[in-house]
Amino acid sequence: MVHRVDPPDLAHPDQWDADETLLADGDLRLLGRVANASNLAFLAQVDAGSRRVLAMYKPIGGERPLWDFPEGTLAEREVAAYRISRAGGWNLVPPTVLRDGPRGLGSLQRWIGDPYAQGGGLREIVDAFAPGGVPEGWLSVLSGEDEAGMPVVLAHEPATDVRAMAVFDVVVNNSDRKGAHCARDSRGRLWGFDQAITFSVEPKLRTVLWGWAGQHLPSTERDRLDALQQRLVPGTDLAELLDELLPLGEPDALRDRVTRLVATGRHPRPTPGWPSVPWPAL
Question: Which alpha helices (DSSP H) does the chain contain, by range?
Fold first, then answer.
């Protein structure tokens, strides 16, 4: 029997630490396979004493090889993205750990929303609209056609936390920020999912959150980047953890991206020669 679990209210750092401990050490039970996942993934339940959470378990043994990410594992990149999200103060990635499970070592991430509700019980922040139908204030990203050949405009919310996610994606070099990979829970909190195709040494940013391309970074994001830069200095706990999780060269490339962002103080523009929006976009 699956017990309904409320969305996390992670307002205090101690709550994040408690979730990490629960995910890492709790009793893990698989509830079913996630049928629409691109790699092997399971809905799981984790219990420890009176606490219970739902989680997404992705075993490394179920990962399909990727030609453009031949080294490392997706599970370890998921964990690395979570650590960067916390270290930079973005707190956009649900608590995620690397642990052994029924199908072997893999990532285990706190489930957000209701797995049995329409759309997972989450609210989208990116959508496609008819020309002239973009909500007031939303930022248009591109124009195109839908499956029926009708013109559409892809746009996203202009909210501060969405902008923070756009900066976070630059830092981790996210190559797969689809519309379905970012949504709000029933409390309105923004979350990012599926950060496994990240941290490449080559510029591979592919996202639907281009609404601020070329604009100056807000002071909040500059402060986050300054703080993160200090935590990424070789020899720090975070730097040593990333050396364990990521293939050789990727931690250095991460530091270089943060340094460039601090130096330019601007959101980047799409890189020529690389598709700037994932497919499908939503």
Answer: 13-25, 74-87, 160-172, 219-231, 237-245, 250-264
